[in-house]
Specification:
This protein is α/β, with parallel strands linked by helices. It is 38% helix and 18% strand. The longest helix has 18 residues. The chain is globular, with a radius of gyration of 22 Å. The chain binds S-adenosylmethionine (SAM) and iron/sulfur cluster (SF4) (2 copies). The site of S-adenosylmethionine (SAM) has 20 residues, from strand 6, strand 8 and strand 9.
């Protein structure tokens, strides 16, 4: 039976679908109604009538009524996650997803690698510490833990950590380059993560230029994962070389049930050297083509880095969620325990953008004290919202430009270089 998860928020609750990794918000009245289920059919009709006549109150955009209906029909159930009170009034209760870098070891040496992977960080967390962190993430009401790196499957206790995420009732997602042997692939298949994200840069020559050998092996492994019915997604970097192949790439892999995320290269880590992404004029027609593909393959997951830019402001109660997901809704923990608002920002200036260390006595292996109380994070959340609002109010938005993010804006200021994803910035520097 399908299960949804409910976590209380200061404005009501977040409802999370672990299978699809999707979520929506409900207000306090709706949250209380859900917690009181089952209720009589007359009460359900009353609630639905109430929200269809007062649509402005329905922050779920109709999803509450759908959920209520499946719960009443008993085709789905709802898990209420215990939360730590008092709830914060200016942010979500805890991150929706935590990116947990379990090791910076890597068998790859991608030229654009954002965190210059390929070594073990000094003072790396032990396996026991990482198990403690996972235990705490579960208790803190985090919905999804994404094991990443480096190449997480290279960490000797990878399987133990992955199983622990499951045991703590969190959605398990894994970022792996899939340049792995049969035994590691079988481990991944046995784990059956809720989501496996790998990297494939659209076409063999483009992929090899930036990521090195492995294209054919990755494709073989992707098909084996799909054969085992594992929800698998392809991260594809938008480079001058990959861009002409995107349509063929989608046509090849969408029918096999793969999802896609088209990523804008960020000048971080090794990716700062020789940073030369495609121009906006080259990318915009490809983004238009993607919208067509969305219609052609309605069951397929499509996302791009451009889609993190919201088209309108989103404030619920006192919580302003406008801006980058990384800062408003998710968190990063590095393999040395550093807690970051955004992996890219950390690479730009580790001292300035580290929020704390999960080993600190203030944290005791929990992300919550920093998530709820960090003044730096508060400031970054405001800046991220302002950055998004600047795009919403810009005449170029959705015409000659698709919007840019707080990382690119700060990179441009700190490195005194243009943000190639922002028309205004390009003009200011030319
Ligand atoms: C850091 S890797 C870790 C997981 C695994 N090693 C892999 O490559 O898939 C996670 C994702 O970050 C993406 N990435 C790496 N460097 C980047 C950069 N400079 N800008 C944007 N994304 C980047 C990769 O393409 C990959 O899909
Ligand atoms: S992008 Fe992934 S595979 Fe490539 S070097 Fe970085 S961590 Fe390794
Ligand atoms: S030109 Fe700059 S400010 Fe305007 S929409 Fe593009 S990224 Fe945003």
């Amino acid at each position: 039976m399908k299960t949804y998860r409910l976590r209380s928020e200061c404005f009501g609750a977040t409802i999370y679908d672990p299978r699809k990794q999707e979520y929506f918000f409900v207000n306090t009245e709706q949250a209380e109604a859900l917690k009181m289920l089952p209720m009589s059919q007359a009460d359900v009709s009353n609630l639905n009538n109430c929200y269809s006549t007062k649509l402005s109150d329905d922050i779920s955009n109709g999803k509450f009524a759908e959920l209520l209906s499946v719960l009443q029909q008993k085709t789905a159930k709802l898990d209420v996650i215990p939360t730590k009170y008092p709830l914060p009034l200016d942010s979500l209760t805890s991150p929706i997803r935590v990116y947990f870098e379990i090791s910076l070891m890597c068998n790859g040496s991608c030229t654009y690698c954002l965190n210059s992977s390929g070594h073990v960080r000094p003072n790396a967390l032990t396996t026991d510490e990482m198990l403690l962190i996972i235990d705490q993430l579960g208790k803190d009401g985090v919905f999804e833990t994404r094991l990443t790196g480096g190449e997480p499957t290279m960490y000797p206790e990878f399987e133990l950590l992955a199983r622990s995420v499951r045991e703590h009732n969190m959605t398990l997602s894994i970022n792996s380059n899939l340049v792995v042997n049969e035994s590691t692939l079988n481990t991944l298949i046995d784990l059956h993560p809720d989501l496996l994200i790998t990297s494939l840069d659209a076409e063999k020559t483009a992929h090899t230029k930036y990521r090195g050998k492995g294209y054919d092996l990755i494709v073989r492994n992707i098909h084996l994962l799909r054969k085992a019915n594992i929800n698998t997604r392809l991260n594809c970097m938008l480079s001058p070389e990959s861009l002409p192949h995107i349509e063929r790439f989608i046509n090849e892999f969408a029918p096999a049930g793969l999802g896609f995320c088209f990523i804008l290269s960020r000048p971080a880590g090794r990716g700062q050297q020789g940073f030369s992404p495609p121009s906006l004029s080259e990318m915009i027609p490809v983004m238009d083509m993607l919208e067509q593909k969305r219609k052609e393959f309605p069951q397929t997951y499509f996302n791009t880095s451009f889609h993190v830019i919201m088209e309108r402001e989103l404030t619920i109660g006192g919580v302003n969620l406008t801006g980058c997901n990384a800062i408003q809704k998710s968190f990063n923990v590095n393999s040395d325990g550093a807690i970051l608002p955004c992996a890219f920002l950390y690479e730009l200036d580790p001292e300035r953008f580290t929020l704390g260390n999960i080993r600190d006595s203030q944290c005791s292996y929990s992300v919550l004290p920093i998530w709820r109380e960090s003044e730096l994070l508060r400031t970054l959340r405001q800046q991220s919202a302002q950055c998004n609002i600047r795009c919403i109010n810009c005449v170029q938005f959705k015409h000659g430009c698709l919007g840019s993010c707080i990382y690119m804006s700060l990179y441009s200021q700190i490195c005194n270089a243009p943000d190639p994803y922002c028309r205004k910035s390009i003009d200011a520097f030319s």
